[in-house]
Amino acid sequence: MVARSIVPALTAVLVTSSFLAACAPPASAPAPTTAPSAPATAPSKPAAKATTAAPAPTPRPTGEQPRHGGIITRALARDVASFDLQREQGSDASQTIFNVYQGLVRLDPVEHQKIVPELAEKWEVSPDGKVYTFGFQKGIKWHDGKPFTVEDVKYSLERMQNPKAFKTISPRGESLLAAMGNAQTADEDTIKVTTKYPSASFLFNLASGWIAIEPKHILVAKGDMRRDSVGTGPFKLKQFNPNISLELAKYADYHIKGLPYLDGIQFYTITDGATRFAAFRTGRVKMTHVGATGLTAMEAEIVQREMADKAVVYEHDRLSRSTITFNFHRKPWDDVRVRKAVDLAIDRQAAIKIQGKGLLGSIYAAPWGMQPTEVAKLPGYRQPKDSDIAEARKLLVEAGVPTGFTTTLLSRSGTVYEPFGVVYKDQLAKIGIQAELVIVDPTTLYERFERRSFDLVSMSWAEATGDPDETLFAYYATGGSRNYGDFSNKEIDELIERQARTMDKKAREAILAEIERRSMEQVPMVISFKSIGQVGAWKEVRNFSVGSGIHAWGKLDHVWLAK
Q1: Do 528 and 324 form a contact (C-beta atoms < 8 A)?
Q2: Nearest Cα residue to 555 out of 184, 245, 210
Q3: Do residues 324 and 342 lie in contact, with contact meaning Cβ atoms separated by under 8 Å?
């Protein structure tokens, strides 16, 4: 049985739900920790209706009444790098500490197109679309028992918006909060967030799981939360054993009455893919890892064929893309003809076969940009490849390298990444580009990215929201957080800024189409394909719903066990 939930996006102020497991540089793992307990208090009232968005999370119409109790078991491919969600961006962080922290708002766990309250119980947007006023209920407490305040919100937003000033790293927050001007406390229960311009995606960006509010008292005292796990979320850290397990326990003083249903979540760190799948088949874990190290296509087929009475396979848009990054500081990558030749040479369909599931796609997540049927007709995407290869060779002749040249192709280590480096190396050889494939660990890869010490990089990237703003500001804008090749184009930069300020959907789509056309002319990077992920869950796992990315369902406060 396959449960498909590739959800289309909202438009205008509320846009598509997102993320995929992202690829983050590892940090040093925190030591074994037992989280402090908060003093017991009566749970607060449930979040009230928001003034500009849907109110509470939508219940899943199963015909059953949710049950409290039980511990769900899950598999992770590696330990979470640290407990500081404002610093992390990997799928391991999103599946564990997402459950510890909260943002101002969130995506509805079932109807992923809706934005619903989380810490903020209500909000209003000014008529000019530039001032967001968030109101908070009283009585929210951090897991260490200290009261949550609007100063925590202000400090967190400013820390993510300007990480250099706070001497930290905020790979997600800085781009997601690109439109933010400032945050000011209005009173003890209210904060006003002003944007630089009316933004079509700002509220949705705030709903991203990466925009986590962390306790100011710990951030000020220690500088970060890498070894401290103190949130306001439905679960708190119980115990962490590096390379073995991480356990979350129900937070008894959670401010949303009746949640969470589960008593806890037990994560087992299982680095080997075959062993992870065996743990799922035997029932040691009831849910698989999500994202790049979720079920493979073959494993999903086994579940459907041999475990249909026990388990379900969920397919979802991972908001992830397999790419080749050029270093614009090195020749011949500053020559657009050479970049186009590479773009033509890559066989996308062959790469998808390695992944098992994937889509041809434009530079944007669905439903923005060209559809896969349109993309399949374009040079570089079409089949067979004969005409593309011939055109690529012709471009290399025009660029003055008729017999090709040698270069290096970096690839991140791991079974998820290395096969694509191999296939891209072979495909480049067909047009005379002899690439030495160099496999490096994640830390080394990101160090070389930062130093611009590379020719080409084969890499999988994932997005947090799926809105074009994130894609464009991260990969295509001058100085973008993931524009490691330092691509820069004045006209494209101006268009990126313009679409971000355009609230009318039709007008924005026209600008995005122009950006897409110009980017295909300039080839800032090669987009091979977009990934489809597969998640396995045993049938006693109820109220689980999967949409685009991970942010709508990374938190399991609404999930319950039937037995």
Answers
A1: yes
A2: 210
A3: yes
The residue ranking higher by pLDDT, 535 or 5, is 535
Rounded CA separation 563/113 (Å): 30
In the numeric block, the tokens 């098992």 are attached to: 356
State in words which class domain 320-531 has: alpha beta
Once rounded to an integer, what is the mean pLDDT over residues 402-421? Answer: 91
- Strand, helix or coil for residue 455: coil
Answer whether 18's CB lies under 8 Å from 367's CB.
no
What digits encode the pLDDT tens for the residues 186-231? 999 999 999 999 998 899 889 888 899 999 999 999 999 999 999 9
Residues of 248-276 as b/e, b for ≥16 C-beta within 10 angstroms? Answer: bbbbebbbbeebbbbebbbbbbbeebeeb
The token duo for 483 is: 């524009």
> What is the sign, positive or negative, of the torsion defined by CA atoms of 536, 541, 546, 549?
negative
Q: Mean pLDDT, to the nearest integer, of 526-551? A: 84
Q: How far apart are CA 52 and CA 322, in angstroms?
A: 37
**Structure token pair of residue 459:** 């890499």
CA-based nearest residue to 421, from 335, 353, 323, 516:
323
Q: Measured between alpha carbons, how far is residue 247 from residues 74, 232, 260, 272 in Å?
A: 10, 17, 15, 20
CB 392 within 8 A of CB 310: no
Cβ neighbours for 444, distance < 8 A, ≥ 6 positions apart: none
Structure-token pair, residue 388: 């593309």
| DSSP collapsed to 3 states, 103-154 | CCEEECCCCCCCEEECCEEEEEECCCCCEEEEEECCCCECCCCCECCHHHHH
175 confidence band (pLDDT: 50, 70, 90): confident
Residue 90's alpha-carbon distances to 171, 306, 324, in angstroms, are 11, 31, 20
> Cα separation of 251 and 142, whole Å?
10
pLDDT in tens, 321-355: 899 999 999 999 999 999 999 999 999 999 998 87
pLDDT higher than threshold 70 for residue 1: no
Reference 361, options 531, 533, 547, 529; nearest CA is 529
Delimit the domains of the chain by residue range.
Answer: 320-531
Per the DSSP assignment, residues forming a β-bridge with 306 are none
